[in-house]
Specification:
about 270 residues, alpha/beta, UDP-N-acetylmuramoyl-L-alanine:D-glutamate ligase, nine-stranded mixed sheet, two-stranded antiparallel sheet, 9 helices, about 20% strand, globular
Amino acid sequence: MDILSIQSAVLHGMVGNNAAVPVLHSLGYTPLALHTAWYTHHKGHPGWSGEVTPLSVFEAFLQYAWQAPHLQVTTVLSGYLGSAAQAASLAQTLPAQVFYACDPVMGDVTPGQYVSDELVQAYREYLVPRATVVLPNQFELGLLTGAPIQTTGEALEAARTLLARYTTLQMVIVKGVRVDAELHLCAVSREHLTRTQHPAIAYRVSGTGDAFSAAWLGLYLRTQSLHLSLTYAGELLYRTVRRTAQAQQRELQLLPELLWLQQAVQRLG
């Protein structure tokens, strides 16, 4: 079984594939990494440079992943995409039998939407209808459903709306809704609902959503449990942000917590 992670890459920092690949490694997988863009560092920091992967290159790499005889891609995780054309190409070529986890990277409560309107529409029209699971944050869930999310109850209702709207979609994982001093996470399927929460940490750092999505996916593939995958991925997120805040670092301090994640998986059996 091969996992294909389709996200951005940076020269330094822990975002996109730089975050997702180590997390998946820690869970025992050796993912394939297709980079949608190459940047010096996260675009939220000044002084960045780089470019989106040309569509011809992106499509050639996709075809290689689907067709190479020594590969067997059964699972795809997508994160930051560089263009609406990349989204359309992924949706059009994605094999029907693939388990597709779509992290719709479009923005956050702060600073708001940071991709084009065309890419937002591409998620709605092409990718979410094809996804097995979608993993939006609070802001992105509002973009997908057309109404801002302010409470956990609204997040659950929005998740059920997506499940009713898209027949292929099986699960919605809400990566966080801020409620007073807590961050609430929710997982909704057609049969089950589970939640977890942890203290909210007032420290902004990039890459948390990328790490969470990879952790949730790897944990779910191993356990087939919405509750366990949400709980342990949420704990990884909390521990990592807490460590980063304590060290007052600009980049996510992810690697020290991966040993904890490995030990947690061993305990799960």
